[in-house]
Design goal:
Strand order of the largest sheet of chain A: 3-2-1-4-5
Low-confidence stretches of chain A: 266-275
Shape of chain A: elongated
Number of strands of chain A: 13
Strand content of chain A: 15-25%
CATH architecture of the largest domain in chain A: 3-Layer(aba) Sandwich
Number of helices of chain A: 13
CATH topology of the largest domain in chain A: Rossmann fold
Order of helices and strands of chain A: EHEHEHHEHEHEHEHEHEHHEEHHEE
Largest sheet of chain A: 5 strands, mixed
Oligomer: homodimer
Radius of gyration of chain A: 23 Å
Largest interface: A-B, 71 and 74 residues
CATH class of the largest domain in chain A: Alpha Beta
């Protein structure tokens, strides 16, 4: 490939829901690229992800100081903007792929780095195919990212470990609160967490509990159809034994017929639809059937942006995968994604592996059934062994005026030279 | 007072909603009491607050090691249990007050320390009056605690500074997330925070924004009646200028007629309406009128239990007030509450002051109107000057297995010697 023999520019984009550590991958990528000026010219970032490439809205990261790029490592969110935009199949929308190649050609881009989840790995794979059929040399590398932890061919996904640490910490803390209040007030605490299809984040809440009487007492997974009677019996038993019950519920909880509980909003005394997510639905069900007072929490974006509480493991892996992407490209690899290979549980050890994008694209990794206890309401020791290292260690960002000091990049655009393209 | 001349035992209870630092006050109190064995015998804690005194369910803290008492300083929630239970007036329910004195007499208790908010200071005052009329010597000292920051005669209330730091940090982090997503997805982020009657916590969210384009862009205070049209115009303007809009809303937001935007219809034991869900009401209003996609978050108990992110100032003040309570009692004071006196804004300086319980009881401190901007949607520089020192500094708890390592006390009961008393 030409890309391997003369300095050409690199394109980098962030895709899908952002995380507390996706910028750590960007940091690893840009810092590594800057160490190879003989091979890589400038790193251009897509403003708002792949849309920035389609619309020729490229950010010239060479205007950012080394110090500011270093600060990306501890800054959550997507520093260049992300997008929810999936390119269609090559057959359906070939014009979009051709536009990408046109933009890359116009800006002398020889490296394509795409930082995202399943959909993004699919896009990266399609771009790599097209570059071959169109005879345009392009090293296409995917970089994994998803709080959902559902990418195959990597032991864990950057972003997940920090969400896991956040939800487990939050559950432990809120659990202590409700335990204090239970004698005369709140007896039920429900926290709704992300993960529509896979219960990895719900499982992580379980790490807060190291004994049967410690919160959370019950977990409601998307993998286990909601069984109302069995659940309510467990809640009642919990309150009788411990005085209260703390529950984590996946946003994707559904019943045996596949209906999401979040779509089953209850009605108030006036017949008005009661607003709220599955957390509130579950909490109100308990109040209506068992009469217990409840509180419920919906951390929403807080859980995936909580860089102040990031897992050190997660930050290190996110950074390492950004660096590995560049190193793979420089080694002449394309159509691949670096991933995490676990070599030992305790003490935890990992190294970088390499997967083919075609094997990763659109494949969703489910949580193994043996990670969920037989009764369906908690995690097993095997699950704990898997999860524990992912939340290990702290990586506290610097603070200023009592708040985390996050970087805002200048994000200066590369001058456009092509015709307008509308997405 | 006899209490000043021979070692008698002390009673300590936690009351009302707990916080990330109420145990730091307990730590300051118990550690100080242990340094004065000539004056103070054992510290007995009420299990579940004042209910523990009424039911003679006392926890003998002398069974806890010095090391475990020290760990209280970094443990959130109420280590001995709290309660929402307000003693009625002396005239209405004299039997309860007499029972308290009976229990104190039976267990040789000469000091009464009550750690709570407005209602609790009222109770402590009534107990101090009764001890005088009944001729039972008792040093009654209140210790302030409330995330609502609405106690008078103290510059700030322990618990508030840590909530303030949590909500400002969370808003900054979630704001970076939604800014990344706004081009193709979520444009509106709403975070609902505590503060029924006073907007202190809502105001604290504003600290995350150091420029007009930084989140949060709009704050909805309980002090400012909700004006729908003006609000929606500001939201639309925000999205047009910055691409997105981040909003913090108080659970106590109401309209010009005093109607809460969301009222779950239940009441707690103090008769206060239990609120929740206004965040979603506001978010759905924006979607219905302006068509923007939203996310909303309800941190609920997470905000007041987030010891992992506590303010160093807050922890120090909570500890100092627990210590001061003992020192005041040993100095022969009773019917008083130690408080925080601010002596300078920048650099921040404070000292312990003393207020009469009768001046504190049932008085609610409102947020000054000059802390809210003229348009009603943000905070002023005067507000920032007040709030900034309260969130300053970190006090990170020790961690174990990637999670905060909080103490669980043994909480061994003192043997009962009186007849059963039902509350």
């Amino acid at each position: 490939m030409n890309a391997a023999h003369r300095p050409t520019n690199a394109f980098y984009a962030q895709s899908g829901g952002v995380t507390a550590v996706i910028n750590a991958s960007a940091c690893g990528l840009i810092e590594t690229a800057r160490r190879h000026p003989d091979r890589i010219g400038k790193v251009f970032a897509g403003r708002n992800g792949i849309i920035g490439a389609l619309t020729e809205d490229l950010i010239d990261t060479s205007h950012e100081s080394d110090a500011d790029i270093a600060r990306l490592r501890h800054t959550p969110g997507g520093a260049f903007g992300s997008c929810r935009y999936k390119l269609k199949g090559l057959d359906q929308h070939r014009v979009q792929y051709e536009r990408l190649i046109e933009v890359f050609r116009a800006h002398d881009i020889g490296y394509f780095f795409y930082n995202g989840g399943n959909d993004s790995m699919d896009t990266a794979w399609k771009v790599s195919q097209l570059s071959e059929t169109m005879g345009y040399p392009l090293a296409c590398i995917g970089i994994p990212k998803t709080v959902d932890n559902d990418l195959p061919h990597t032991d864990s996904c950057p972003g997940f470990g920090s969400v896991a640490k956040y939800v487990a910490t939050s559950m432990r803390e809120a659990g202590l609160d409700v335990a204090s209040m239970a004698a005369t007030s709140t007896k039920i605490f429900v926290m709704e967490v992300m993960g529509r299809h896979a219960g990895w984040i719900t499982a992580a809440c379980g790490l807060a509990s190291e004994a049967a009487d410690e919160p959370p007492h019950l977990l409601l997974f998307p993998e286990i159809p909601f069984a109302e009677a069995a659940f309510l019996a467990r809640v009642e038993d919990c309150v009788k034994r411990f005085g209260y019950c703390a529950i984590a519920v996946s946003e994707g909880l559904h019943d045996a017929d596949g209906r999401f509980l979040s779509d089953m909003g209850t009605r108030d005394a006036f017949g008005h639809a009661q607003l709220g997510g599955v957390g509130q639905v579950v909490a109100q069900l308990i109040r209506d059937r068992l009469g217990y007072k409840y509180h419920w929490a919906l951390p929403d974006y807080l859980q995936r942006s909580a860089r102040h509480l990031a897992s050190k493991t997660d930050v290190e892996q996110a950074y390492a995968l950004g660096r590995a992407a560049v190193e793979l490209a420089l080694a002449g690899r394309h159509g691949v994604m670096p991933g995490i290979v676990r070599t030992a549980d305790a003490p935890y050890a990992w190294e970088i592996g390499v997967a083919e994008l075609k094997d990763v694209a659109n494949v969703e990794r489910k949580m193994p059934r043996e990670f969920i206890s037989a009764d369906g309401f908690h995690i097993t020791d095997r699950c704990r062994a898997y999860l524990a290292p992912l939340i290990a260690g702290e990586d506290v960002p610097p603070s200023r005026n009592g708040l985390p000091d996050y970087v805002r990049l200048k994000n200066i655009a590369v001058p456009r030279c092509l015709e307008v393209f509308t997405v």
